Amino acid sequence: MKKKALIFGITGQDGSYLAEFLLKKNYIVHGVKRRSSTINTERVDHIYQEPHLKKRTFILHYGDITDSLSVTRLINEIKPNEIYNLAAQSHVQVSFESPEYTANADALGALRILEAIRFNKLEKKTKFYQAGTSELYGLNEKVPQNEKTLFHPASPYGVAKLYAHWITINYREAYNMFACNGILFNHESPRRGETFVTQKIVQALCKIKLKKQKTLFLGNLYSKRDWGHAKDFVEAMWLMLQQKNPEDFVIATGNQTTVKNFINLVSKELKLKIRWRGKGIKERAFDEDNNLIVACDKTYYRPLEVNSLLGDAKKARKKLNWKPKSSLKSLIIDMISSEMQKY
Description:
Layout: E1 4-8, H1 13-24, E2 28-33, H2 45-49, E3 58-62, H3 68-78, E4 82-85, H4 92-97, H5 99-119, E5 127-133, H6 156-175, E6 179-184, E7 187-188, H7 197-209, E8 216-218, E9 224-225, E10 228-229, H8 230-240, E11 249-251, E12 257-258, H9 259-269, E13 275-277, E14 284-286, E15 292-296, H10 314-320, H11 328-341
Parallel strand pairs: 1-2, 1-4, 2-3, 4-5, 5-6, 6-11, 7-10, 8-15
Antiparallel strand pairs: 9-12, 13-14, 14-15
């Protein structure tokens, strides 16, 4: 009997990679997509076209994490063995502009799923994974950060995810549910949304290389992040639900770099020679012909800056036998290759 998985947020970066991973594990994969006036399934459309996959093993449903009736109905109809909640308003800067929607989707969304599992009396059948984030640590600059590091979120996104984190623990302890949190540090890929800084950098520098764009505008160049590949991270999600007991895990590469150095690494792969001048908000990068390539803009600074995120995934390495397969260089090459193919 094949296992059934239900993925909320299947049309996102992580959801698409997780769907591919589970299908290779011989799961029947159900995914939830929101109704939209435009096509929003481009990250998973290719799955239907793979000849070795039968369509009945990959099924999409209309639904919305902000609608408790649709969440409850889907879980009752599918009765999945595993539920992965990857649905969220996941952009930190946007969460400052839409804090109420972020709370509704990111905080209460997790509660709706947990309550639907309980309401449908699936506590013993269904395992639940909640997608957490390194933004939980926020202003706590103690590095590296692990499962015991104190949380201090610095955005409505981080605060909403903190509620989801604790409500998952609460249902686990109160109702003896198999429910766990993955505290995932930054993970990127060619499928990353174009408003996220890594994708924004790769897309802009590729266009600059091809003379299709002149300048890239960014915020804080000295934010330090722990960047991995989304393909590696979805495997960790699955491994968490295969354990005997539910636990929470930090998933990270353990390596850190600045936004500025990420720009330098992408430029090097593209053979773009750039030189930096100035300091602070006036720091800029120029090419060999003295054309302005990168400039800082206060528009892209957060109201509260999170300066340093670095994950300690020793627990995941030991208990899950998980470690990242991709280096930062291979991630960047993957993202550049995908972007250049568009042209």
